[in-house]
């Protein structure tokens, strides 16, 4: 057996010992308080970033580019894995989590700017991002570094995913959609690993967000108000 798999199983044994009693109230179903849509980047610790250790609290989805959409015969729709808790478990909060230095946003950027060949599966994922990022590239200021452009497009991508949620007739009107960026590259004010709120229900103006949500004023920050 691969040594690292053995280490993973040992870690799981410790997890099972610590969590044994935490599943008693979850045997028959779940009512998660939020669905989080995170990038599947290994640097984005999807439960740990919230300091969450309680089963049943978060319905966590992960994919490259923290996308909320999928393509079907009926067109572009909110992905079933994101929609399920909103439609069936009473979950009324959706959080889209982008992150600094996102590889999927970077790849989509490179395809749009320079062209880039990827395996078909990755290309399919990028095709879901490209049409929504292209207008953002057109809006970028001229004096930015490549890194700065990509991190602004990270915000732009989160905004587009929130827009998809808000425009979908499948998502209940009661759902609050929050867009955030997880920073481990010192792009925002704050510590590495902090989450910065950039969008609440489609509002992206920092002053307006801070005025509406003074209790989290210090956590509301954007790199780019386009």
UniProtKB/TrEMBL annotation:
<feature type="binding site">
    <location>
        <position position="39"/>
    </location>
    <ligand>
        <name>Zn(2+)</name>
    </ligand>
</feature>
<dbReference type="GO" id="GO:0008270">
    <property type="term" value="F:zinc ion binding"/>
</dbReference>
<protein>
    <recommendedName>
        <fullName>carbonic anhydrase</fullName>
        <ecNumber>4.2.1.1</ecNumber>
    </recommendedName>
</protein>
<feature type="binding site">
    <location>
        <position position="99"/>
    </location>
    <ligand>
        <name>Zn(2+)</name>
    </ligand>
</feature>
<feature type="binding site">
    <location>
        <position position="102"/>
    </location>
    <ligand>
        <name>Zn(2+)</name>
    </ligand>
</feature>
<dbReference type="InterPro" id="IPR001765">
    <property type="entry name" value="Carbonic_anhydrase"/>
</dbReference>
<dbReference type="Pfam" id="PF00484">
    <property type="entry name" value="Pro_CA"/>
</dbReference>
<keyword id="KW-0862">Zinc</keyword>
<keyword id="KW-0456">Lyase</keyword>
<dbReference type="InterPro" id="IPR036874">
    <property type="entry name" value="Carbonic_anhydrase_sf"/>
</dbReference>
<comment type="similarity">
    <text>Belongs to the beta-class carbonic anhydrase family.</text>
</comment>
<keyword id="KW-0479">Metal-binding</keyword>
<dbReference type="GO" id="GO:0004089">
    <property type="term" value="F:carbonate dehydratase activity"/>
</dbReference>
């Amino acid at each position: 057996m691969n040594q690292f798999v053995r280490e993973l199983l040992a870690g799981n044994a410790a997890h099972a010992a610590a969590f044994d009693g935490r599943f008693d109230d979850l045997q028959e179903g779940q009512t998660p308080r939020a669905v989080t849509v995170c990038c599947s980047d290994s640097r984005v610790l999807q439960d740990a970033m919230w300091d969450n250790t309680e089963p049943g609290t978060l319905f966590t989805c992960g994919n490259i580019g923290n996308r909320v959409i999928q393509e079907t015969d009926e067109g572009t729709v909110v992905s079933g894995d994101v929609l399920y808790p909103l439609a069936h478990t009473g979950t009324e909060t959706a959080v889209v989590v982008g992150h600094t230095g996102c590889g999927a946003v970077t790849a989509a950027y490179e395809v749009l700017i320079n062209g880039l060949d990827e395996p078909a599966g990755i290309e399919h994922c990028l095709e879901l991002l490209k049409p929504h990022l292209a207008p953002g590239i057109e809006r970028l200021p001229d004096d930015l570094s490549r890194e700065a452009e990509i991190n602004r497009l990270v915000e732009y991508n989160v905004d587009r995913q929130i827009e998809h949620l808000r425009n979908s007739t499948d998502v209940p009107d009661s759902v609050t959609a929050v867009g955030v960026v997880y920073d481990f590259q010192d792009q925002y004010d704050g510590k590495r690993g902090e989450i910065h709120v950039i969008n609440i229900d489609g509002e992206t103006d920092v002053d307006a967000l801070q005025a509406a949500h003074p209790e989290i004023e210090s956590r509301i920050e954007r790199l780019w108000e386009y």
